[in-house]
# Entry
Amino acid sequence: MHLSYYAFAPIYTISIKFFSYIFLGSYEFVGFFVTNISFILFMILFYYYISFYISKEFSMYAVIALIIYPASNYNTILYTESLFFLNVIISLIAYRNKDYMIAALFCGLSTLTRITGIALLV
# Structure
């Protein structure tokens, strides 16, 4: 086995492989698709999560700040950040709603997306 096969954690590559059958094997397009759909879903759920704690107006400002932040370009290119953020926010929302099995599932998925997801276990 070559070490170059392990550039990303397994969930990101598995999702790209799964959707590549739908999009006729174009891995680049599927990577952009998975990343951008994950980022859009993350922004929607982030707005929902933040609006629980602060007003809807400031929640919208938080989402806009997330979009225009200079390092947010990593959320729209072929990196695992957007899928990781999506798994983390789903885990946090499920934990807040006292749905601990879903929270644990997405905590595990976030760990399989990026190793820093292990911090959710603490």
User: Anything to note?
Assistant: The mean pLDDT is 86. Residues 46 and 89 are 7 Å apart (CA to CA). The radius of gyration is 15 Å.
